Each structure stands twice: as structure tokens, then as C-alpha cells.
């Protein structure tokens, strides 16, 4: 999630050096001790549903790093999992948010017939099918397109030191039986992107990348580990909401392995010490969240220094601003220790448990912000109050926690309401229901909604399984219905 650094990010020195009081609540290590909670949870563990007939994306990218463009062949294999026949498919094309960045060269159907009578609305292409696609039927679309990367300090485009490719290919959005295709416009206020607008189902990816220039100088960070043959990198990633790259000729790398997971960082020259530290912080975060929910299911977690001033989660990969790395001070009282657990927790609450990030962003962002303090409670309990004071209370956050990304007031209003007020809301719920019910409910929510797109009601349903405490007054205080 885009997270602009809190205003005082460059000056952690003006934070209190000692917590004013120690309100640390250590996270219980055994979160489900009563027979009721543990039996509900163990039965839930067996109920993780792996979606079948997932969409498959084959993406073959030839990338010209120094001349800032790419040529892509894409084959989307799609099964209609709804109960109605589709006469057209929707292709959503995020690069079209950047004028001139996306050029469609050809589009053809499963029989190889060229499709030209598509209809365009914003970044969406409605693609008519020769025959209606019946429920459970599978078809495919083949596209060839060119990407001219915009000069943008962000997750799609070229900055001084890297090329980032997130949301770089056409995808088929989720289809809801009552709402239809789930797509939302990007929200930009004062030239600043507010939140995420792309909603993805889990899908499978087979991706290749061929670099045309100075291959030996360039490092590629990606959502999955690469296999390299004859200069072509191949990647396979299952059950993911997207596949991202960050490419640079200026990376310094560090890797550690914990419980079989490779934790691999890519940072710029000035931040090599922080590049090592971030792998240790991420390892602690993976361990904690793995214990709270279920182990991180991927082979690798990639952490990349972003050449811009915000942070972003992707499947199997997180980007953390170079500003956060540059100001790392070798102590846990630093934004790197605050924000790494935040981004890592999105591997559970964004990647594994999806949500509509435009309409209900609190489901990943309030939770990710709250996971920062869970991290401090586990590993640095003396800094818990410092975290609350500086990360949350200092901003006197207000606003409806269940605001969407189109909230009036743009980014700051959004961050205060969804992230910061959201963390306060979760703490109030925890205080009301007690630690045991709270952590059992979070785990239940994580298990029952794994690989799905969860809603606020799913969250409250999980709480209600473990606590009869009436939360109406808390909801009334933090939510608008
Ligand atoms: Zn976030």
C-alpha cells in the first residue's frame, strides 16, 4: 500500500527517547488455549479452500532497460466461474493510466482470430467473444503490446535508479454475481496517488524476462525466484494476485534463509548495512505472523529499496522507500523497524487474504498498521508506547475507518482514517473482547478467507465466533454504515 512517510520521518530525533509509560501487552504465544477456540481453529485450518480453475497468465517480456520500453506477449487462460454466460470479457489495463505507455499491437481469441471490435472505457477494454463463454467453460486471449515506461517515481515506471513493473499487464478482474466486474478508477489528488484501486483474484503466473542491454550490469528483483537459461529468466508463481519486477543496475544484495524461506534484499549503495538489517527484521516478522496465522507459503520474500518516497506491498515482494533505508539508525527506534513488519504483514492481509482495496482498504491497511505494534509487542515491548505516540497519537487521527480511497481530503485524510484511526479501532476491539478471542478471531479470519476476497462482514463474523461482546458502540464510533 502506498504509504507516505509520516511527516517526521527524517527526524526521529525529535521523538521522546524513553517511553513515558510501559503499556506493552506481550502477544500471547499460545493464542488458542480454550477447547472451544482451538477446536474451531483446527477445523478451520482444514477448510482453507484453494480456488480451482484459476486464471493463468503467461507473460513473456523483452525489456530494454536503458531505453525504457518493453515488448510483451501475454496469453490469458480464463474459466468462467460465474453462473451466467459471458458474451464479453473485461480486460483492465493499468498502464493506460499513463498516457502513451500502453500500445496494443494485437489481440486474438482462442482460435487465433483477431479481435478488433472491442469497446473501451477508461482503462478497461470490453472484449466481445465469438461464442458466449458458458459457466465452467475455459477460453484464452492472446495479446501483444508495447510498454513505454513513464518517468514516474512509483511502482510503474522509470526513476533515476530503477524500473518498476507492478500492475503492468492487462488482467481480468473478479466477477461478482450482483456487482459485475470489479474495477475502480485510480484516485489521484494533487498529483498523489491515494491508495490502491486494483482488485485481483488469485491466479497463476508463468513469466519470462529477457533483457536486451548490458545484461551483466542489471539485477532483477521479482515476486518469485528465477531460473535462468540462455539469458532468459523464467518464473513460476501460483495463487498470487499479481507478478511484479523491480530492475536496476545499482542494487546491492543480501540474503538470509529462515525456515526454508529465502529473504532477499536489494538496496542502493549507501544503504548496504540497512539492507542486511532489513532481512533480519523481515525474518522476525515472518516468524511472528507465521505463528499467529499460518506459515508464509512462498519460497522467497523479496525486499527492494524503492527509489521513491512511499512503500508498497506486492505478492512475494515489498518495496520500502530509500528514505527509510537511508535513515536507518541501527536501533529499533526507526522507520525501518516500523515499516518492514507493516509491509511483510501484507503478505497475509492483501496477498493471501484479499480485499477490495479501493472500497474497503481498512481490511489490509488498518491490519498492516496494527501489525507494526504487534511486532513491537513481541520484540521490543519497551517501545510500544513510543510507537503509539509517534506513529498514531501524534497525528490525532480521525475519520471513518471504513472510508474508501475516494475520501475527501486525499492522502492525509485517507491515511489518518484508514491506517491510524484503524489501528486505534483494532486496539479497542482487542481491549473489548480480550486477547484470546481477538487473536483467535484474526486467525480464523485469515484462514477462512485465504485466497478469497474478504469483506468487513467476514471480519466481524470471525470476531463474533469468539466473543459475544457487543461491538456496536465501537463500530458506531469508528465506522459509518
Ligand atoms: Zn500498507
Written account of the structure:
It is a single chain. The protein is an alpha+beta fold and 481 residues long. Among the domains are: 20-50 and 350-478, Orthogonal Bundle (Neutral Protease, domain 2), CATH 1.10.390.10; 56-201, Immunoglobulin-like. It is built from ten helices and 25 strands. It has helices spanning 35-45, 272-292, 322-326, 335-345, 362-379, 384-392, 410-433, 435-448, 456-466, 472-478; strands spanning 56-64, 69-79, 86-92, 102-108, 119-121, 124-133, 138-148, 156-158, 163-165, 175-176, 180-181, 188-189, 192-193, 203-211, 219-222, 227-229, 232-240, 245-248, 252-258, 261-267, 300-306, 312-314, 317-321, 354-355, 453-454. The longest helix is centred in the last third of the chain and has 24 residues, at 410-433. The model is unreliable at 1-26 and 28-35 (pLDDT under 50). Zinc ion is lined by residues 1, 3, 313, 342, 346, 365, 368.
Radius of gyration over C-alpha positions, nearest whole angstrom: 22 Å
Fourth CATH level, the homologous superfamily of the domain at 20-50 and 350-478: Neutral Protease Domain 2
The major pleated sheet works out as: 7 strands, mixed
Low-confidence stretches: 1-26, 28-35
CATH topology of the domain at 20-50 and 350-478: Neutral Protease, domain 2
Rounded average pLDDT: 91
CATH-derived architecture of the domain at 20-50 and 350-478:
Orthogonal Bundle
Counting helices, strands and paired strands, the structural category is alpha+beta
The kinds of small molecule bound in this structure are: zinc ion
* Shape assignment: globular
The strand line-up of the biggest sheet is 4-7-2-1-14-17-16
Helix content: 25-40%
Content of β-strand: 25-35%
Quickly name the level 1 CATH class of the domain at 20-50 and 350-478.
Answer: Mainly Alpha
Number of strands: 25
Amino acid at each position: 500500500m502506498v504509504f507516505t512517510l509520516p511527516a517526521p520521518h527524517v527526524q526521529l530525533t525529535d521523538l521522546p527517547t524513553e517511553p513515558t509509560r510501559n503499556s506493552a501487552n506481550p502477544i500471547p504465544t499460545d493464542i488458542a488455549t480454550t477447547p472451544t477456540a482451538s477446536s474451531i481453529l483446527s477445523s478451520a485450518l482444514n477448510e482453507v479452500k484453494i480456488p480451482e480453475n484459476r486464471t493463468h497468465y503467461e507473460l513473456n517480456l523483452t525489456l530494454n532497460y536503458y531505453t525504457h520500453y518493453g515488448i510483451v506477449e501475454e496469453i490469458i487462460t480464463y474459466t468462467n466461474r460465474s453462473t451466467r454466460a459471458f458474451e464479453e470479457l473485461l480486460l483492465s489495463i493499468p498502464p493506460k493510466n499513463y498516457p502513451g505507455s500502453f500500445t496494443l499491437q494485437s489481440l486474438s481469441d482462442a482460435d487465433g482470430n483477431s479481435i478488433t471490435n472491442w469497446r473501451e472505457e477508461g482503462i478497461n477494454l470490453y472484449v466481445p467473444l465469438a461464442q458466449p463463454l458458458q459457466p465452467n467453460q475455459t477460453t484464452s486471449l492472446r495479446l501483444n503490446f508495447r510498454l513505454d515506461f513513464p518517468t514516474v517515481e512509483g511502482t510503474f515506471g522509470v526513476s533515476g535508479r530503477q524500473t518498476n513493473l507492478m500492475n503492468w499487464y492487462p488482467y481480468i478482474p473478479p466477477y461478482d454475481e450482483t456487482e459485475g466486474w470489479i474495477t475502480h478508477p485510480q484516485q489521484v489528488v494533487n498529483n498523489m496517488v491515494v491508495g490502491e484501486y486494483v482488485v485481483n483474484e488469485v491466479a497463476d503466473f508463468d513469466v519470462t524476462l529477457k533483457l536486451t542491454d548490458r545484461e551483466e550490469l542489471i539485477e532483477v528483483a521479482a515476486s518469485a525466484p528465477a531460473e535462468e537459461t540462455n539469458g532468459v529468466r523464467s518464473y513460476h508463481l501460483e495463487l498470487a494476485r499479481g507478478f511484479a519486477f523491480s530492475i536496476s543496475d545499482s542494487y546491492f544484495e543480501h540474503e538470509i534463509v529462515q525456515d526454508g524461506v529465502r529473504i532477499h534484499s536489494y538496496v542502493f549503495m549507501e544503504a548496504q548495512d540497512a539492507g542486511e538489517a532489513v532481512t533480519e527484521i523481515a525474518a522476525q516478522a515472518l516468524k511472528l505472523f507465521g505463528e499467529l496465522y499460518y506459515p508464509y507459503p512462498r519460497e522467497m520474500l523479496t525486499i527492494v529499496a524503492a527509489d521513491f518516497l512511499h512503500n508498497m506491498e506486492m505478492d512475494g515482494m515489498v518495496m520500502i522507500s530509500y528514505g527509510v533505508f537511508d535513515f536507518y539508525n541501527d536501533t529499533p527506534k526507526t522507520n525501518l523497524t516500523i515499516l518492514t513488519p507493516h509491509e511483510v504483514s501484507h503478505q497475509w492481509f492483501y496477498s493471501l487474504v484479499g480485499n477490495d482495496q479501493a472500497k474497503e482498504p481498512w481490511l489490509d491497511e488498518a491490519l498492516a498498521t496494527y501489525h507494526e505494534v504487534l511486532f513491537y509487542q513481541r520484540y521490543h515491548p519497551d517501545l510500544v508506547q513510543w510507537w503509539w505516540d509517534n506513529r498514531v497519537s501524534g497525528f490525532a487521527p480521525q475519520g471513518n475507518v471504513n472510508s474508501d480511497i475516494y475520501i475527501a481530503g486525499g492522502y492525509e485524510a485517507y491515511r489518518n482514517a484508514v491506517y491510524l484511526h484503524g489501528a486505534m479501532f483494532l486496539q479497542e476491539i482487542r481491549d473489548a473482547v480480550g486477547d484470546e478471542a481477538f487473536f483467535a478471531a484474526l486467525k480464523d479470519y485469515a484462514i477462512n478467507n485465504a485466497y478469497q476476497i474478504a469483506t468487513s462482514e467476514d471480519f466481524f463474523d470471525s470476531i463474533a465466533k469468539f466473543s459475544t461482546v457487543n461491538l456496536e458502540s465501537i463500530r458506531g464510533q469508528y465506522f459509518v454504515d
